[in-house]
Every structure is written in C-alpha cells, then in structure tokens.
Specification:
The protein has about 200 residues and is mainly alpha-helical. The protein has 8 helices and 2 strands.
C-alpha cells in the first residue's frame, strides 16, 4: 500500500482503469519541481479545457482525435468571441496559448509513458498538429512595404509630428521604454513633466 501511495504521489499509473482526469490531477499534485505560478497555470488548463471534455476517458483509450476535438472546441469558441456572441470576459485563446495548453498535456503523458507499469506507449498530444505560436518576424520598412517596422528616422519624424499633442509623453514612453499596450492604456500624464523635447519622470 505504501508503495502504491508513493507511486501515486509521483503521478505513476496505478491501474488501467484510471481516467485522464484522475491521472492529470494526480500528476499535477505530484509535481514539486515547478514554480507555483506554473502549477496555477497547469491547473487552469486542466480544469478549463481537459477535464470537461476528456476527463472521463480512460487513459489507455485516449486517442489523437480526442485531443484534437478539444483544440477544435477552443477554435469554435474563438469564432463566437470574434462574432461578439460571448461575454467580453471570455478570453480569446491565441495560437501560442493553444501550444501551451497542448504542451501541458504532452508533458503529463510523457510522464505516464516513462512510469513503471504505465499502460500507454504513445503520446497522442504530440501528434496533434497546431499552428505555430511564434509571432511573425518584423520586417523593416521599405517603399514597397509601407506598413512595417519603422526605422529610427521614421520614429523621430513621428515624435516631431506629435510634439505638441497632449499624449506626446505617452508616445515618447512607448518608443523609449517599450511597454505593453495595457500599460500604456493605464498610464497617467500626471506622473511626467515635459523637459525640453524629452520627458522628466517623477
């Protein structure tokens, strides 16, 4: 009994009747070598995507089609979000997030494959094809490619053009600090003061 408990804590398969949901919960509870934020992220993936749709399936019966169906459901929900048919609080899942969701399942299944007496030999999550989660590489501006990444002289021209604009301080900060869009949206001009053509931060 003690040996079985020790295996369970490590996420090892105890019997071939174990469901995907049972295994994922056991696997995550046994993860002591990853950060708390990663545990929280993985738990969210499990509860939000994997448990509702494939949690009831026995681990030995899990197939590529089951995993692909979960990804397809995410895509269908994305379409509803874009069509404005879901509340704004429902988050759009981008390609990089889908890669992360699948990666968590792939990692868990790899552990099951390596486990002693584990009933699975193939990682079906690794066989599901997904769009690349990488952001497109920026291209330098040219006459033929007018809507591309600016050169330094373009940026200077823009700052000169908006020098008298009320949001000049925000544009200046975006150029020199590279904040996220959300950080700019919450920025307050009261924290800065104009100093010549630049910004004095307080």
């Amino acid at each position: 009994m003690d040996a079985m408990k020790a295996k369970a804590k490590k996420g090892v398969i105890i019997n071939d009747r174990q469901t995907v949901g049972e295994y994922l919960v056991t696997w995550l509870n046994g993860k002591k070598d990853i950060k708390a934020n990663t545990i929280k992220l993985y738990r969210g993936h499990i509860n939000r995507y994997w448990l509702p749709r494939i949690g009831h399936i026995r681990l030995i019966d899990l197939r590529v089609a089951h995993v692909a169906a979960v990804i397809e459901a995410i895509d269908e929900r994305n379409e509803l979000i874009l069509a404005g048919r879901l509340p704004k609080r429902v988050r759009f899942v981008c390609n990089s997030s889908k890669q992360c969701i699948r990666s968590m399942l792939r990692t868990a299944l790899n552990n099951a494959i390596r486990a002693e007496d584990g009933p699975i030999a193939v990682n079906v999550a690794a066989l599901v094809k997904l769009p690349s989660g990488k952001s497109p590489k920026p291209m330098v501006w040219t006459e033929e490619r007018a809507v591309m990444a600016w050169r330094a002289d373009h940026t200077g021209q823009f700052l000169d053009y908006v020098a008298d604009h009320p949001l000049y301080a925000m544009w200046y900060r975006m150029v020199h600090r590279g904040p996220r869009c959300g950080e700019c949206a919450g920025w307050s001009g009261r924290r800065t003061a104009r100093c010549g053509r630049g910004i004095q931060w307080s």
